[in-house]
Design goal:
Chain lengths: 188, 137
């Protein structure tokens, strides 16, 4: 058992569990969509003074903030008690590609080169990445959970278009911009 | 406590995302390089089961715990906002390797620099609120 929970879990188990979470939220009269929390936090912090986009009864979204809190706790539990201390099990091709960009694949799920280096460049990367995700998810009206999971499950064409957008942006970043951003290996 | 079930659902979500490595920046890179089935398998399984579930709920008139019919609201029609907004989202997703859920899960894992990503995401959400009337939808 300890062995099983420490290993990376297979995709079908994860996919099944995500569908189960979607069911639980629907059963309790809610919908699965994580990025709404960002709007809620802005509204809580008084952003309604600057834009009517943030003037809504955010207290009705408390359940989603609790879900967010739970996800932080879940990350802590998985990392602390269910960890195999191994490098991420990505493919050799990806490891080779990332090596040419200056990334070493070490222990842990996030690269130290970006998340643990505290250079001006890595800080800018993190803030810019977050900014695009926040701006884009509200512009598109949802993120991976709201569009790719909930929206596609309800066969929504707008969600399919949004997911195509996710990939247009992701492919441009990965294949066209990464070689420019990470042009000098080791210079992160 | 009424909110406990949502915290529990969140905890399970956090554990799944961590254990299937879907929170990993490396996994997102692997996905955008089409070098593994893992992320496609996760999302594909969830959607395949989700489609069946939503369809069954609609056909059977499934009710939630309050006895209310579960209503599925269709997304507003349009192309521009989804394509353009989605592309901006994708640029950020590939760069920092995290969509909104995983940002918070990773924070729980002890990646405290995710606070920069979360701060950026809140700023991005706020900027959208300020600019949205000028953006094509």
């Amino acid at each position: 058992m300890q062995e099983f929970i420490s290993q990376p879990w297979p995709w079908y188990l994860s996919g099944f569990m995500i569908a189960l979470i979607m069911f639980v939220l629907l059963f309790f009269g809610k919908t699965f969509g994580f990025s709404s929390n960002l709007r809620t936090i802005c509204a809580m912090s008084g952003a309604g003074k600057a834009s009517d986009f943030f003037q809504f009864d955010w207290k009705k979204q408390t359940w989603n903030l609790l879900f967010l809190m739970g996800s932080v706790i879940g990350g802590f539990i998985a990392h602390t008690f269910m960890n195999n201390e191994q490098p991420v099990a990505i493919s050799d091709d990806t490891i080779a590609d990332l090596k040419t960009l200056g990334f070493k694949v070490q222990k842990g799920l996030q690269p130290d080169e970006i998340f643990n280096s505290f250079t001006l460049k890595s800080v800018l990367i993190l803030i810019t990445g977050g900014l695009f995700v926040g701006f884009g998810s509200r512009w598109a009206g949802g993120c991976t959970s709201g569009h790719a999971i909930s929206g596609l499950s309800n066969l929504q064409l707008p969600s399919l278009i949004a997911v195509i957008g996710f990939f247009i942006g992701g492919l441009i970043m990965t294949h066209l911009l990464f070689p420019i951003i990470f042009n000098t290996p080791g210079a992160l | 406590m009424k909110g406990l079930k949502f915290i529990l659902a969140g905890i399970i979500f956090g554990i799944i995302m961590t254990k299937s490595e879907a929170v990993s920046w490396y996994r997102i890179q692997e996905m955008f390089r089409f070098q593994s089935f893992q992320m496609y398998g996760i999302i594909g399984t969830a959607v395949a089961l989700g489609v069946g579930m939503v369809l069954l709920m609609k056909i059977t008139g499934f009710t939630d715990f309050n006895g209310n019919y579960i209503v599925f609201h269709p997304k507003e029609k349009g192309v521009k906002r989804y394509l353009l907004g989605g592309s901006v989202f994708g640029l950020g997703w590939a760069l920092c390797g995290a969509c909104p859920g995983p940002m918070f899960v990773s924070l729980g894992m002890g990646y405290f620099t995710m606070l920069l990503v979360i701060g950026g995401a809140l700023l991005g959400t706020f900027l959208y609120g300020l600019m949205r009337n000028k953006l094509p939808h």
